[in-house]
Amino acid sequence: MSYFRDNIERMSGYIPGEQPKDGIYIKLNTNENPYPPSPNVLTALRKVINPSLRLYPEPLADGLRRAAAEVYGVKSENILAGNGSDEILSILLRSFVGAKDRVAFPVPTYSLYETLVAIQEGELVRIDYPADFTIPAQLYSQSAALTFLCNPNSPSGTLVPLPDIERLARALTGILVVDEAYIDFALNEAASAIPLIHRVPNLVVLRTFSKSFSLAGMRIGLAFACEKLIAGMMKVKDSYNLNRLSLIAATAALQDLPWMKRNVRRIQRSRAQLAGSLKELGYDVYPSQANFVMAQVKGWNQKRMYEALKARNIFVRYFDSAGLQDSLRISIGQPREMKTLLQEMALIRNDPAR
Ligand SMILES: Cc1ncc(COP(=O)(O)O)c(C=O)c1O
Fold first, then answer.
1. Measured in angstroms, how far is the CA atom of residue 206 from the centroid of ligand 1?
2. How do beta strands 102-107 and 146-150 pair?
């Protein structure tokens, strides 16, 4: 006998990338930023580590939302702050998806979407991406309550252009969520769908501070949408969903955009170099606009490569699921980490015992 609801009993949980214990390793498996957050963030945090921690944080994250509204050219009423964008994904499911409601998205993509649909007892509609990772035509006509588009997509790193997103949003009868966790790493600075929220009433755009702002450990995300959608989602979120330190860190990070942009430029440069070197090693590399690349050798299972790298304390992401077994997703690290990775990959590839 189980105490759990049937769907929870049946589902398998989301498996995050490994977080190795302390030691010397190169961590390229969960798309964290290899550079530290702005020193202003650390200074601001030190200042609030004081007895005020006995008080609850601002329930609606007003200070952070005001700062974000200024940076992104919207009103505070267009923004909801979450404990990482993962929490906002969960708020979205609870807000818009009831049992048996359809939730559609192109695959392969961020696999947490699937887990959240299972928890909510929604109906999963997975549609294969075409080989060029453009929006699949079937996505337009699924009558889904919620449709996800991860842009740039993970694990492919590919980017869908803005006019295609607007066309999709206008064709859908339900909500379109564009998950822009990696958009700051795109070369085209005008690729974001945030400006569309003013004229597309069924669009929600997600951002995270975990990647470009180097704050994965603080758990901060933002949702952008028209006022009506944000007001409804506010009813669903926990009262104090962001802690005092996260609110301070996020606000300080937004006040030092040059720091974030400098790190983004370094990562873009390393991304181009890594893609070139992986191609020399015989891999196909998708054109990535994110802080990772997907490297593939058609028909060659990459599990041994993943395990051999792990044995050398180099962590990359291997997805043991259909269609992805011949690929590795590699986060962009610091240049010396990329150099070691490539040296070890070449050695492993040439090892006759592999
Ligand atoms: C596509 C995508 N969306 C959302 C997230 C979650 O980000 P957060 O750390 O803000 O919860 C991730 C994390 O890897 C991601 O890859």
1. 9
2. parallel
